[in-house]
Protein: Transcriptional regulator
Organism: Desulfovibrio legallii
Amino acid sequence: MSKQEAAPPPPAPPRPQTSAAVKPRSRRPGVALHKGESGPIFANAVRVAGMVARTLGPFCEVAVHDFSDMQHSLIHLEGSLTGRRVGAPVASMVAKALRRGGDAVEDAFAFASTTPSGLTLKSSICFLRNGRDEVVGAICLHFDLTDLERFQGVLHGLMRFENAPGRELTELFPACLSDTSDSIIETAIRKAGKHPAAMNREEKKQFVRMMDEEGAFQVKGMVQHLARAMRISIYTVYNYMRQIKEEEQGKGLGGMEE
């Protein structure tokens, strides 16, 4: 009996053809793949754009531009403030800056811009460069300040005071009578710009006059508190008050004689 010959192995499956026309799909929708030297630059720019957009939320837009095709430079977009889409041309401001500066163009930060719909934006542009320091693209950030501007107007109205010019009105909320006296004296010291203990005789009298004009002596026990603060006797405070009253009466009589 003859020995049977071994069956030939099955043919190997055909290898898939690698055609240059077949391009791998982007891992993220709307992001074009980049080949060559600039590929990692734009890949990192897209990652940064996503990070910024997720950090700042819906009030920002981040755009990545590839200047190899200025008519369709927008290759990735996070947010939708300007109404643009992937494939849009480069903005006129960027094109003008490139014309003037070329590869030496400088980044621009925190400048004002306005959308066609009327949004007020705070914008920044950072140009992307390859290993030869050539500008190959840009990453642009826009932040919507429209609602903040409206809120600023509301805050301005709420925080506006209507004090008479040159006259400061301050409301005090003391817990006890002693707090009232101390607060009034501290306010007067701030206005005088000098502690009464360091004043000369005439300055002390003027300080008492200022306290009297502010109605301080309507508070019970104010004379005693003031004497301690000024480091003088109660009788000296009363003496200043008497002199001030006599001076005012003298002015009044002088006016009547005229």
Residues 76 and 177 are 68 Å apart (CA to CA). The first strand starts at residue 60 and ends at 66.
